[in-house]
Amino acid sequence: MEPEYHEHSHKKGSRFFTILFVMVLVLVVLGAVTLFQRRVQYQALAKETETLAIPTVAVIHATTESSEEQLVLPGTMQAYVESPIYARTSGYLKKWYHDIGSRVKVGELLADIDTPEVDQQLSQARADLNTAQANSNLSKITATRYQELIKTDGVSKQEVDNAVGDLAAKVAIVRSFEANVRRLEELESFKHIYAPFSGVITRRNVDTGTLINAGNGGSSQQLFVLAQTDPLRVYVNVPETSAPSIHPGLGAFLELTQFPGQRFEGKVVRTAESIDTGTRTLLTEVDVPNHAGTLLPGGYAQVHLGVKVAGARLQVPVNALLFRSEGLRAVVVDANHRAHLKPLTIGRDYGTTLEVLQGIDASDWIVLNPADSLEDGQEVRVKQTALNAAPPPITPAPAAPQQPRPSPDAIPGAKKQ
User: Is there a contact between 331 and 373 (Cβ–Cβ < 8 Å)?
Assistant: First the structure.
């Protein structure tokens, strides 16, 4: 019995150690598998972290401006010729013939002035002229008679000289009175007010019976204001940057709020050929035909000038700019997916976009909404936007394969949410 008992006990112990060994082996294998899985997960996490550390940016191309653009400037329409009409003689307004809005021709009678004082002065001057002519005729007869008598020694030489000298003085007096009569006749002719040119009466400041004083005594003495409204002048102040493109003959047109959709064609006729130092602008005159009288002097208009743009100019959206302490910058991505900060020279501000004169090219990829943390030479990942259709000069980097995020249980020290 004892040998069988010892044999049975020996077999039972061997089986126990075999089971124990298998269990230890299984635990070791499970531990190795767990460690391997954790290593793979750590590697995936590190790779994903490294991938996410490279920023992804949206890029576009700058928009190229047209070589011909409409330079729009405000302007005030003025009559081609506008003149206040004053009286050259004094008196009372007898009658006027044209009121405001009347279109008159050159030489047409506008008003009559009653000038009794000038009429009396003219009558007196004519009477004085007749007296002077009579005295001159008497002196002429006397001088002629004395010149005949001296041949027979009937008069002395001195008497002849006195008679001839008196005749010359009387002739001079006649000429003086004749000039005075002509002056008064001219002055009396000014009692009739005529239109100096064809146009429209824009103002009438007098009425029948108004006392008229001769001469330019200011606006209070203006009888009428006459304006020639075909064509119209429009003066605009062109910025100095566009001044080289302005020249006589340049096409232009007007747009008025009260005539939506209509264009009134004109052209540049002259410039001041000098930049105003106060405003840094070039005074430019645009003439616009106005045969129908649609345009009114004094009105406001938007003047469109078809100027040529010198050199290539680009436009970028305002959200593509980076404001740094050293100045305005744009972030440009090169073919190696490296970001570079380029200084810009800005032109005009269009609100949502800005004109760029220098700093970037049309083929550059420009980053939209650049982060302040971007540094020069930093690697980025590119995502092209659909703001323009320019062909991409660089190929966007392929997206990294998405790795499964490790569960919090697989990360030592991680807390479950």
Answer: no
